[in-house]
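pasting for ref. prot 1 ->
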Amino acid sequence: AAVSTRCLLHSLPFDTNTDRSGGLCARRAEEWMPEPQMVMFAEEFHQIQGIVGRLVKSSNASVGLIIDKNAQLIAASGESENIDTTSLASLTAGNIAATGGMAKLLREREFTTQFHEGENANIHIQLGDNRVILVVIFDKKTSLGLVRLRVKKACEQLGEIFRLLAEKAQGLGQTPFAEITDDDIDNLFND
């Protein structure tokens, strides 16, 4: 008799008799694997930080953040000292992942823009080049239209930087730390 079970990750049925490799569930689980760690160089970091700073100033926003899809904060600008940016980065990346799941259910590639309106603060979230997440927090001193306009320009600039960064990292091989051995690390800490 065929055993019917559900993939815990997606609650989608699959037949264990015909799909012993995990099939649909295994393929779907791979889609949710974390993105590879991004290699960041000082020059590009300063460019990214400048873009976020100009975005905050030109849109009259209070905070701008760049987060990767693994929830790592890349850059921040504005009045971020009173915000738990680590938690915000994690929640934002989770939000993007959940929204990505909804998009797939609706046969969309991705929902790239989100907007959350509060009594005192608003958050505009933009997925940029399917690599990074741009978060802009603003209040009634500015408008959503202005924020969206400035975010569009910033995303174009960031897309170019991240494309060049990816090329630069590929030129290094797998990772800039690939040539470091366990002995090298032990020697570093034994001094």
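and prot 2 ->
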Amino acid sequence: IPTPLRLSAKLPPLVADVFEIRGVSNQMLGTISGKLVYGSGSMPLSMAADNNVAEGDSSGTGWVGSASLPPGIDGVGTAAIVATDTYGQRDEFVGTLTIDTTPPGTPTITATYTATNGWKVSGTATDADKVRLWVNNKPYGTTTPTATGAFTFTIGTVAATTTVWAMSIDRTGNRTPSEPINIPTALRLSA
């Protein structure tokens, strides 16, 4: 007689529009399916089992479920995972998670030049936990905005016209880009 099938998982505390749920079972899985229920809607989870991943012994199975949620879903969701093992035994894992697919506000940015420090890019990012600056489509740096949303990056001198933009990122990973701005090469005045 086989040991009864048991599923276990650790749900992420907060999920954005794309997320994964990972877990294990104590037996080799035959089938696995999942569903996420939120507010007045629901959607299937894409599920996969990996019989090479086990917890504690080599007879178990690791599994992962993932989903891409439409924007505007916020609140508590319930994930229900149902599996059967190779003996035909069934178990269900049910857990709740908090869903936040609302992106932060659009950051605003400006660039100012001083002879001492070169170019500074400053702005405001509401509802953002961090702001990432991009310079000529390459990541430049990340900072944490103040309580009022203010942030500043010093990029110094630029050799040619440079395009910069900022990305607001909230605590679940939702992102909103700013409009790009072009920073010209600083003018040099001579007598």
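The longest strand covers residues 74-85.
The CA atoms of residues 35 and 137 lie 38 Å apart.
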